[in-house]
Structure formats: C-alpha cells, structure tokens
Amino acid sequence: MQDELFTVNRDVRDNGEHQHATDDAPDPAAPLAVRMRPRSLDDVVGQAHLLGEGAPLRRLVEGAAPASVILFGPPGTGKTTLAYLMAGATGRRFIALSALSSGVKEVRGVIDAARRRRSHAAEDTVLFIDEVHRFSKTQQDALLSAVEDRTVLLVAATTENPSFSVVSPLLSRSLVLQLRSLTDDDISEVITRALTDERGLGGAYDLDDDARAHLVRLAGGDARRALTALEAAADAMTPDDTDGTADTPGDTSGETGARPSISLATVEATVDKAAVRYDRDGDQHYDVISAFIKSIRGSDVDAALHYLARMVEAGEDPRFIARRLVVHASEDIGMADPTALQAAVAAANAVQFIGMPEGRLALAQATVHLATAPKSNAVISGIDAALADVRAGKAGTVPSHLRDGHYTGAKRLGNAQGYAYPHSVAEGVLAQQYPPDELVGTDYYHPTDRGAERVLAERVPKLRTAVRGE
Fold it and tell me: Is 93 in contact with 123 (CB distance < 8 Å)?
C-alpha cells in the first residue's frame, strides 16, 4: 500500500504505561482513515462473527495464547487495525512489511532482529505482512521456521483466498479468519464517527443525507474508501461554505451560527464521480435491469455496458446482475450460441470468487458475449409450450416400454418390455414412441436459422422423421 498504514519496518512498542499500539495521539496531518483507526475492540465496526465473546480473534486481541493468523477479506474491512490491536494487547513490538516492496532479505532481517529481542529482552514481535499473496513461494517459505518456533507472531493480510495464494505449510501453522465487507449501516456508522470524533472532523460539518448515501455507495463496504472520500469533500469546503458558522459544533439550527453541511455536489466534485440516480429498492432498480436485459436482447452492446456501469456504480449486488445474465443466456440466446450460458455461469462464479470491484470485468465480458451473440428464444418458447400443455392436463401415461424395469415385478407389469436401444443401430436413432399417446406429433422446440441453431434447424426435422417413423 502507498499510504501511512503500511510503512516498511515501522514498529510500535508498549512504553511501560500500558498504552496500546493504537492509543498514541494521531498525527493531525495523517489521513482521516489513519486518525480514525479503532483503538480498542469496542471501536471496531463490523466483523461481529469474529469478535463475539469467546471468538478466536477476540481472544487473540485480548492477549490469549498467541497464534499466527491469516486475515482474509476485502479492502477496508479492518485487517490492519486488528493486527495493531493484537500487537498492543500485551505490549508486543509491531513491525509491518508490505509484500509489494519487501523481499526475502527484509523478511530475514526482521526475523533476526526479533530473535535477538526475544533472547536479550524477552520481547515478542508481531510481524504484519500486507498483501501476503504477492509473496512468492520462496518468500513465504522464509517465514516458516520463525512462525513454527514463534520467533514472530505472524499476522498476514490478503484480499485473495489463501487456499490458493498461501503455501500449505504456512496455512497449516496459522489460523485463517475471513473478514466480511462492511454493511451499509457499518459504513454509515464509520462516517458518523469521523464527523463527530475529535480525531476526525470534530463536529465541524454536517453531512446531507443524499451525500451520506452517495458516500456509502462509493465505499462498497470499504471503510477506508468512505473516509478518504469524506476527507476530500471536507477539504474542498470553501470559505463561502463556512462563513457565519458558530464555534459551537452542536448548533445545527440552520440559522446564522449553524455549522456548514457537506452536500452531494461537493462529494461528487471531489471524488470525480457523478451520483447515479438509482434506488436499489425502488423503480430505478427494475427500470435499469429491464433496460440492461432488453439492450442485450436487442444486441446493443454499448447500451448494455452503459446500464451495467450504472448498476455497478450504484452498488447493485453483483450476484443479482450475474443471475440475470445466466437467465438471459438461455432465455434469449439458447442454442443459437450454446457457449453463452457457459460464459454467464463463469461470470457468476468469478464474481462469487473474487468479489468487487474486479468482478465487474467478468460481468462486462459476459455482457459483451451475450449482447453480440446470435439470438433465439426457441428454448424458452419450447419449455413454456410444454408447461402450458402439462398445466392443461395433457400429461398422459408414460408408454410402457419407457417405464422403469429395474424393480421386482416390473416385467410382470409390462414395464420396459419392447424398448429399442438406439445405440443398437448404426445411426443411433430409430423409430420409437417417446411421448404419451395424447402428445404424439406435438412439436415444442422450433430452432431458428440464427447462429449455431442453424444446424439444429436442419437436424431436428430429420430426427423427428426418424423417431416418428414418418
């Protein structure tokens, strides 16, 4: 990382007065996200599944038996904060390395220093490594012996699944704890604290409701992103915004002396993103997804990408978008391009696997594939026609030669008698009745002459003729 959160070889020590690593007065020039770093577990927002009474992470932070930990989760969910809290719990020295800028030499240097401190001063060391997945196998292997004998208490952070990005020996020596993206309510609470806390903006500003909602959307579950955007908006407040304001932050009467309020326009201008007029629970939710699907159906790839961008920017659940793509692949493309469903399912799996914002790439790729694919609604038309007949009572009796003949007494009932095995003939297709009597000769699937379905448009009539013996 490129900010103050991950200074190479930065260390924090207990000063003998039981101060935690995060208890020191923050540098007023530090970024808002750094100044607002939680100083105790009670300040941590979110991650209740890991911080409940008796939970492993709470026990570690509160100074229970030491164990190395791999913290796996999206950006801005508290991985660095929890590492600081673990270091401060019992006065361990805290050293941070970033895998982006450190190699085996730096790792071994930290381990050697930790070993000396442990031997001469009985002082333990917490080694925090951010982006550990960026370490090579050799770099990760360099940690093994120190983790094994607890020369260092390793706290490694990664945004990627450690099962695929961390070597097995290191995994087996560590607790793997998954952090979750913060909810909208969590992000709103983080913003409120930053507005009112003396370490933050100290009550100097209010925040308009629509500006708050936009910050929450922009954050995407990332507290650091929300605080960075809030700080930029506060810094952009002009003298005109603050003229006539009172010295008392609590005065919000709206008259002369009331504190200024950060508006949506200010937030938009400072983060260089326009607010998307989109209500995930209202009409816009349905209007935009409808326009998205209709644009794909209409083969307008540019419009489809526009509506996808609106949903992504507004914070729409990417899994919802992926599900709609999977449905659309069969509903409007079907056998005209059988790979469309594969592309949509792959995008859905990718979104689930890597999350956002990178998941937007898989969604965009699937959108382009589906929008540019040849179209056919023969699949949905076929199944809907068949369903209509079933619902109308056209079910009929399964022909006896198609019934299950594997149970005792089946032969006596005439089941499976006379069934002709298609593979017994060279063509692999032979004349035989498959539907119930009431539906003999009924056609449900009508392939088009578009895309790959053109081949089926020629093949299906021939298959029907052969099967029906016409």
Answer: yes
